[in-house]
Amino acid sequence: MKQLKNSIYVGSLLSIMVISCQEKETENKDFLFEKVESSYSGVHFRNDLKFDEKFNIFTYRNFYNGGGVALGDVNNDGLIDIYLTSNQGENKLYLNEGDFKFRDITSEAGVAGTRAWSTGVAMADVNGDGWLDIYVCNSGDIKGDNKQNELFINNGDGTFSEMAEQYGLADQGFSTHAVFFDYDNDGDLDVYLLNNSYQAIGSFNKMQNERPRRDPVGGDKLFRNDGDRFTDVSEEAGIYGSVIGFGLGITIGDVNRDGWMDIFISNDFFERDYLYINNQDGTFTESLTDYMRSTSAASMGADIADINNNGYLDIFVTDMLPESSQRLKQITTFESWDKFQFNVQHGYHYQYNRNMLHVNNGDGTFSDMGRLANVEATDWSWAALMFDMDNDGLKDIFVANGIYQDLTDLDYLNFIDNEETKRAIISQDGVDYRKLIDPMPINPVSNYAFKNKGNLEFENVIHQWGMGDPVHSNGSAYGDLNNDGAMDLVINNVNSEVLIFKNKSLELLPENHYLKVHLKGKGANTSAIGTQVRLLIGDQQLYQEQMPNRGFQSSVDYRLNFGLGKADKINEVQVRWPDGKITILNDVGVNQILELNWSDAVEPPAGFIFFKEPQGQIFQKASNEILDFVHKDNQFIDFDRDRLTYHMLSTEGPKAIWGDVNGDGLEDVYLGGGKGFSGQLFIQQTNGTFRKTVQESLFADRFSEDTHGVFHDFNGDGHLDLFVASGGNESGFGALDLSDRLYINDGKGNFTKSESSGLANFKNSSSVVRLIDVNGDGIKDLFVGSRVVPFLYGVNPNSQILISDGKGTFREGTAQFAPSLNEIGMVTDAAVVDYDGDGKEDLILVGEWMAPTFLRNTGKGLEKIAMPEMQQYKGWYQAIATGDFNGDGKVDFILGNHGLNTRFKANQERPIRMFVNDFDQNGSVEHLYVQKEGGRHVPFTLKHQLEQQVPSIKKRFLKYSAYNDKYMEDIFTPQELKNAVMQEVNFLSSAILINQGEGKFEVKALPREAQRSWMYAVLVTDLNGDGADDLIMAGNLSGAQPQVGQYDGSYGEVLLGDGKGDFAYIPNRTHGLQLQGDIRDLQLVELKGAKILMVVKNNAPIEFWKVKE
């Protein structure tokens, strides 16, 4: 909903989606989910919204947020009943009479509610008498209604008494949802009340962050259960309750596995989400920015569960990003880089328009893996539920979707911004809201059901499972309505009947077993809320927590249902009750309801630890006192010039260059500087620390950006000289600061720039330099890779061979010794190694929009080898390193690539391409990213983005609907496309190349977990002393347009090799690395006999990590 702030909550004129030539999905009896018709179930409920001149989407921004669903056994007959909230109508309670037949008992139970606008609903035994009560949140801004929340206390005889005021829960804020849980572990249920701000979005001054200031009317609240009444303890507990709290989701779980419940709040609009870590003393510490590097921008509903069966709770949050390119271009805008940075600088964190799957790393951090899992785009989404929908042992993801009118349709925004429209709508009598609202398009969309295929791979099977009919859904809940061990689904919709889906797993997938755990609490916590349950099946674990109030405005079945797949026995059931006592059962049968009583629990035996954390990590953070260096970059913004690109090139440094410059036997290090900041030389001391030196020559060249370098005795005096490559994306063609530099060493570590090196003649944007003897004279020459043609990103630059005379002077040798280096590609890294075993060093290149490229040393020069099979591995590579991964004596390679945790999905059939041309002939080039679809190309560029660069587009496509389905071939002429430079990428995984000899390589993608970010640095070493090569990798890129989002999922990757060419991914919690920022280099060094990992970052301090021997 964050996009509403740009559109004043307005909508669209998209054509209504039509399903033609098909029968309704629900008529197919072979679907996993079967729709239960209301004529059979007796649940005749619709959340209908009627137009009102005074109360509508323009006067109340949450008008289409919909109602909630609560599932629970209100009469203790063993069957799950249904409570549904309505915005304008009566709330309803339906009693389950078996076999999916329900009876409306709302009137006799007295639970219809008396308020004008109901939202969320929570079922909980509030007074601890063994009967589920119902708490209804109310909101809206309707004259004559005070929005007071209602608490219906179950009398145990089929009736309820409204007692919110008596219990202190008659809050009058704009309430969204409430969760009952025991935050202080005192044995009774407290409640967190989620409220949504009432203030108009456009009225805030975001430079004055209101977060710490408590709002007396609205704001979230934490109520402590004091027996017969609840007390507001929000402020003393550290809970924010400000006017910028736009809470739409509340999710409770033990994220750090300390036995105390933590709180995740998903906030809409510009306010960031909150993650409250329980301090175990009645207070919380809001810690989101420590745990999560980025969040959803328009955070809606959320859920928490162990999605990858590793025993740690993960968090899934919904947003508003459409999946289809056509719909995305019709209803979506993204913040500019400047506006995004403004929000970051003012404390609103890194927020992006997409769903996020925050995977718990188990070390106090999360990585958003939504893009890798392919769950990042589900349209305007509300409910998020993670549960095992097919009982295969893997939790799936259900997303409830749809906004009744497309409020952000870009054609509609232009329509209402038209002066003629304004005159027709606005008069002296006010605004004619009917005329304003009626043109908004109505586009029902399908919900999403992501089947978990394991290894963080999901597939949307909503149609295959029979629930794909388009609808406008909001609150949703799962529960076993017929006690068959499969979770059914109830979905509350706007202007449509509630949907009840029967899960037919028992019938269609009988090989998939289940275990239902029914927890019996004690004292005031009769449902044992907060209990943690783990099943051990072979080497697999399944984990859930008892927390029924979840999803969006809803509550699920109180009984925990575990899908077991084909397992026919559970080795062990482990239960940790809220007081720390445990229950353990061995050899438990499947397909049963297991009833467990808290009162039967015992103290854990000596040595038993429910949550066992890894011990003996490989890496341990070392003191930064070893070397005091902070890399600084200038404030150049690539997107100010290249407006249609998505990734910065100006933040790819620095590198660390090692060599003994003063002849004392200790390795010293040069660390490159950003443009405007000098590189620095540090001399190693005998105590393992480094002393910074003053080098006037280096300071004088501070306006060159250092991208790489090498120490070597270039003038034959026996001392290591320093060659520094100059590059970056800031300087124009022929700029003096692009010249590479040679600094001559006096033997004592003092360097003077050589004025006779000949390097001033070459002004390329260099990225990498490697020593190689290309002419066989025994003198090391230089390969210098070029990253980019200044101001012409996308055009392949010329890389170079510089021939050394051994006296400190270089001449151009490319044409003579390596002519294929001309326009070879946008090189980012290179390796010099004898890959073919002929005794001569060869050159292997990687780069952006490049396939791995091999140049064989013939003894007379470098010859590019034709490897057509490598063309299917064109990547966005940033790093290459060598090793022998299978122990056959041949040189293998590791390639650091873009990864799979990205919006860009590329393969052979559907590559990502970039067209580069001055399409409007105004003297500056445009870069158009596209996805190949058959023989045509779908642009990523939005209409308003393109017309800012090519103004004629505005006239050719007056409406977004005229543009959003167009291919490049429809937008530009054949000649314009023919004249464009085209680049292609079709392989984004970081991978190893296994050398099979005779110029053949096997390409093996690294494990999926290692693809969570862009890898800029790779290191090959033997970490565990088994004789096999292992890998350390790091990267990330924060310099990415908000439209695609920064690449921040990696905290450092470690993979252990088996010596046979395969690598096992090791989680951070096990190996210990927790690297922050944009990593650009990794170096393993020995200091005073200890192995130390040096981590070099862009625009940040250097880090050191001790390596366990």
UniProtKB/TrEMBL annotation:
PROSITE patterns: PROKAR_LIPOPROTEIN. Keywords: Signal. This is VCBS repeat protein. The keyword Signal applies. The keyword Acetylation does not apply. The lineage of its organism: Bacteria, Pseudomonadati, Bacteroidota, Cytophagia, Cytophagales. Residues 528-594 form the ASPIC/UnbV domain. It comes from the Bacteria. Transmembrane segments: none annotated.
